Amino acid sequence: MPAKPPVPERDAQQLLARSLSGLRAELDLREGFPEEVLREAAAAVVAHRLPSEDLRELPFLTIDPPGSTDLDQAIHLGRGAADDADGAAYDVRYAIADVPAFVPAEGAVDLEARLRGQTMYAPDGRIPLHPDVISEGAASLLPGQDRPAFVWHFRLDAAGAVDSVSVRRATIRSRRQLTYAEVQSAIDAGTTDEQFRLLEEIGRHRIRLELERGGAGLTLPRQEVTHDGGRYAIVTEPARPCEDWNAQLSLMTGMAAARIMLDGGIGILRTMPAPDDGALRKFRLQSVALGHPWPEDLPYGNFLRTLDVSEPRQLALMHAAATLFRGAGYTVFDGELPDDTVQSAIAAPYAHTTAPIRRLVDRFVLVICAALCAGEDVPGWARRALPELGSVMASSAQLASRLDSGALDAVQAALLSERIGEAFSAVVLQGSPPAADDAPGRQAPRPSGVVQVADPVLEAVCYGDLVAGEKVTVILLEADIARRRLRFEVKPADA
What we know:
alpha+beta, globular
């Protein structure tokens, strides 16, 4: 395949803007809100009254990516008192934005949110689930603001296991809005901040419990598209340990929500089947081929945490592990409990609970859990919505995935549009499949796989005979911004 000519950067940025705009149109994203929705949201904010239970004396804090304004969660961590009757070692309060307080049941905002499913994030701007007056205003747990929240109260033993949990509405005031980088830097520097030390301590306990119950997680490097007002860039960095520890608090809350709903006989779970034997056998063979064999007596979750993604073959193996995490969905029940209740990567029943500003289903889970904890009937509007929530979330997740991949492809093509014909160092993530026997007279397709280019860090299709985990040199053949496509080929060894 001959290489296409390069595109000057100014032209590339213009083509990229058109490509991203075209992607939104192709996906038929719901830009803007109808006037009826905006009016109802504004009226709900004006009419809202804060909950009577007052927890503003607790110094909650938030940890989010830089520049975040739609803040779903705030945490306050403490140690159990010496005279605690239950002997709890840790006292955890996990506050989640009370979005239902600003969304009239089955009103215009509610119905619009059901058409969207979740907030969509794109390099040229997000498409929110709720109007900004809610998502970036009255519901967001911004610092220095009195906010309504669903406050989950956990009592943990010395091993980090949950002794007791409850959830109820309360008024809180976050004191600090922090980034993961700030928290990790403070921890690495030996901080004296008790909140940070407890985050690490509890997080490590929860990771150990996850591994003991057979849970697993993928810790692939994070890739994000940024925009400085003039041009786009792709930033890739490994996940920080504090992100894992903070995620463990969210997982603990989702597991608690699932248990409350199962005990109450009503709710919606996030479920995923366990990997089948064939997928596990294939992955075990891949681990051998890539020089990092998976021991027979080590659960795969424990094995994944041994992988060093800075090493090319282990990075390829971590990508291969993604085949084990398939088939996630939502399971609704009202009365009879479902047969399948477990999210296999977590190795426990689990529910989406902690992001109601950005994800539709969480709003309903929070209301159901609060009612069950209070011994009250689940509101009729929440019960009536359950049958449709699974399909709404599934379709919105597919849409979000297409937006993410399409936008990333477009930005990658724009970044490399001036470098067609150049050579790049890369690692093979997915090798070429074995050649198939083709019908007589039909031309066999060119073998291809997936590589990760080292600089800039990106994944792309590459033509040639590829073996997973190998380091290769690849030549850029095509960077089509309009079609959002990159194509490389392996440089011959003698070239």
